[in-house]
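Record filed below.
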Amino acid sequence: MGNGSITGNLGIAGTITSLKRNTGAARTFTISADIDPDVTNVGQNGASTTMVLSGTNSYTGATTAKAGRLVVDTDL
């Protein structure tokens, strides 16, 4: 899989995790969607993957980075 992105409103319940198995080149996964409070965790766990969070997020769960890069690109 190459680069990916999610736009609009991300109103799912549960965990969002970006991970990359040993499948080749690095990739970037961008979430510019608003992440609703029903999301309990956002995680980055892929050594050659970058996850970018750039939306208005109202979830209060954990945000973790176990491998790779996690970029928060918004006004705080």
In short: The longest strand covers residues 39-53. The chain has a mean pLDDT of 76.
